[in-house]
Amino acid sequence: MIAVDTSILVYAHREESARHRQARSRLVELAEGPARWAIPVFCLGEFLRVVTHPRLFDPPFAVDDACEALARVLRSPSLVVLAPAERFWTLLNSAVREAHAIGNLVFDAQIVALCRESGVSALLTEDRDFDRFRGFRTVHL
Predict the structure, then answer these.
(1) pTM over 0.85
(2) Which whole number is the average pLDDT over 63-89?
(3) Is there a contact between 74 and 116 (Cβ–Cβ < 8 Å)?
């Protein structure tokens, strides 16, 4: 099962992004396909934070528009939203230590821990910071 990172969600929804068409096409392919795919729960809030941020986009998405965009993605019948379970803290602790994650990289460590706990085979992302986590497979557009 492949998981989708926030960067892909943002690129798929922001037309001014250089990777918009690629990200949108890949997201539609996943959402409409029969294979199970996933979004880490932390990416939902991060998507809303990023696309509504006035310093990142001019104009940013209105809150209602951002929520509706995410709701459309979440309607995919093959989508699984990954949430932390019993082993999350152990895996997070390990991910933070292995990557020497501090500051913003701790957020990525949460994604890695959640994906590992859920048996995700790869993370679709354009964020190269995930390469800091040993044995964690990423794929790019």
Answers:
(1) yes
(2) 98
(3) no
